[in-house]
Amino acid sequence: MSVLSSLRISASGLTAQNLRMSVIANNIANIDTTRTPDGTPYRRQFAVFAPVSAEKDTGQAKRGDNLHQGGGVAVVAIVEDALPPRLVYDPGHPDADAEGYVALPNIDPVREMVDMISATRAYEACVTAINAAKTMAMRALDIGRV
After folding, report:
1. How far is residue 46's CA from residue 56's CA, in Å, rounded to a whole number?
2. Range of the domain at 61
3. Distance between terminal CA atoms of the chain?
4. Alpha helices of the chain — where are they, by DSSP H?
5. Structural domain count, the chain
6. pLDDT tens digits for 6-25?
7. d(CA 64, CA 12)
8. What's the predicted TM-score (pTM) here?
């Protein structure tokens, strides 16, 4: 594996984890959104990742076969969670139903924070891998100077 391919793999991880953190932040921001344009409460979203493999011949990354080659990761979709909304009794709320229940988003703030910490740690790991590859490349250049 070349230094450039390891940088490309780590960069794909950075991009994927950055998007994951944005989706999580969006979930947290919409934790009290009871009405979206379609009239339903906001639904929790999450990113779906898939491995990307690298072709030997061209160096171009593609999804699909030959996963042992290691080409990084790609976000293939942002999916809404299928869990039903939380029902909270609040008869004074403008979005309350006839029985006084309000449908709130299916977002658990603790779960979102755990996911955010996980995404942050994965992002940091990718940065560490990039720095290690950069250090190895610089040391290889130093060997050539001697």
Report:
1. 32
2. 3-145
3. 25
4. 3-29, 109-145
5. 1
6. 899 999 999 999 999 999 99
7. 16
8. 0.81
